[in-house]
Design brief:
six-stranded antiparallel beta barrel, 2 domains, five-stranded parallel beta sheet, Rossmann fold
Length: 494
Amino acid sequence: MKNMAEINMGLTVVSRDCFPKELAEKRRTKLFETCKKHNINLIELKTIVENEKDVLKVLDEIKNNKINSLVIYLGNFGPEGPTTMLAQKFNGPSMIIAAAEEDKNDLINGRGDAYCGMLNTSYSVGLRKINPYIPSYPVGIPEELAEKIKNFFPIARIIISLKSLKIFSFGPRPQDFLACNAPIKPLFDLGIEIMENSELDLYDIFLSNKNNPLIKAKAGDMAKELGKGNTYPELLEKLAQYELSLENFMEKNLQASKYGIFANKCWPSFEKYFEFVPCYINSRLASRGIPVSCEVDIYGVLSEYISSCATEMPSTILDINNTIPYNMYNEIKKDIIKDYKPNDLFMGFHCGNTPLNCMMNPEIKYQLIMHRLLESGGKPDITRGTLEGRIKPGKITIFRLQSTSDTKLQSYIAQGEILDINPNSFGSIAVFAVKEMARFYRYVLIEKKFPHHTAVSFAHTGKTLFAVLKMLGIENIFYNQPKGIYYSDENPFV
């Protein structure tokens, strides 16, 4: 998973000049040692920030140590001006936390009042219009703060990665998926670059790699990876040619950016010219942290990328697809369903783009829906190339960051799980369970006009994603409300 930022995090302490400087220094050292004990890697900055000149010294230390994310620690009350000036001048995500008092026998010279100082700091944050990460409860002893700092790492990774990200799209967004048509201006507001290309460009790149000497080796790697799932071995060299085409294009066109992802048109004309479906290649790239969305879903692939950055594991993009038949629900209710209602469940599905290591016994197959349309039910040929099978059970988070038609960013997050149930269907697919999904579906997904694709991370990442969205300035963040708490548009009389 190299297609994202590596975090080099610094720890600095601030001290108000009418409080003991030694107290702040001692607390910084203790916090640093606690983090070290828990394998939380930080660089301890030696300058104690009491005034603006100290801010400049710390910025030099940051530059010399190549620090790209920063923990600002109120060792005592702290000088709110220099504290927030440092966060403002630092070119990266910052976190502000404060020291709790530790010993009832040392509350005269050893009392720091950082609990109080954090309030003034928050006011100064507003004055400077900056948006540092402040945990839900930002005050604590070293053991408590170490855990909060650990939680900041994935947040920082996402924020930094987005600022060096380029989205490559191929093809116009399909008319049948107008929901995927969304303004690109908000991408630039987030610091993300986008390079839009035609399907002809993609076909030309593909043809230019026809004699690439690496094709056979890559096809061999695919065969080894697939094992028994290699049901169409004669197809692999063509798929390898396509994967090399995307890799080479990305390498040549990243230019000023560091990380790249793809939003590609994948049907119906794709199959007639490329003579396969690209799903398996999409899954392979996603497993390396380079997600590729279907149907030119730009905000879908961005959401999938953010999900991968949150976990440093592969994510996928799926349709929030279909309901669960009642007879299926009744058969497994006692053993598996727990306390989920039928409408808490749905099937997440896509043609075959989920990373292989997230699936159970995956196989290369053909895309049934495209097969009906393009091959009239005959012998599968140009619709082969999906990676199909059940997605593994376990914790999941569904997530989407989306622009509205009037260029306002909004998002949703819901945590749940994949159940160990056979979906009895095709594609890369699983039975998902999310508490109060029916209400979430109606009053978030439908009411707020989100499209059908959702990014799926294979962990509970809500805490990280919510913090990131707040730092990005996203005002409307929706999540599934528990029973008895109504959405703003929900009919309370139903």
